[in-house]
Amino acid sequence: MTATAPVTDRPELLTADDVAAYLRVPLHTVYRLHRENRLPGLRVTAKNLRWRRADVDAYLSALADH
C-alpha cells in the first residue's frame, strides 16, 4: 500500500494566469509586480515562473495593511 498526497482544490504553486485570476488583475500586472520584486516568484525553467500561494496571500495581506 502506498501513501498518496491529499487532494486539494488549491495547488501550492500557481502559474501567472492563476495569479492574475486570483488577484483579478491583468497578466502583465503579475509580471510587473514580479519584475519590481513586489511579488516573488520561482523560476521553474528558463521561461517559466511559478508563485507560491503563500507568497501571493502575503502580498494581499500587505496591501490590506496599508
Automatic annotation (TrEMBL):
Residues forming coiled coils: none
The record's annotation in InterPro entries points to: DNA-bd_dom_put_sf, HTH_17, SinI_DNA-bd
Q: Per its record, what are the GO molecular function terms?
A: DNA binding
Q: Which residues form the Helix-turn-helix domain?
A: 13-61
NCBIfam families the UniProt entry points to: excise (TIGR01764)
**Name under which the protein is recorded:** Helix-turn-helix domain-containing protein
Q: Which organism is it from?
A: Nocardioides caeni
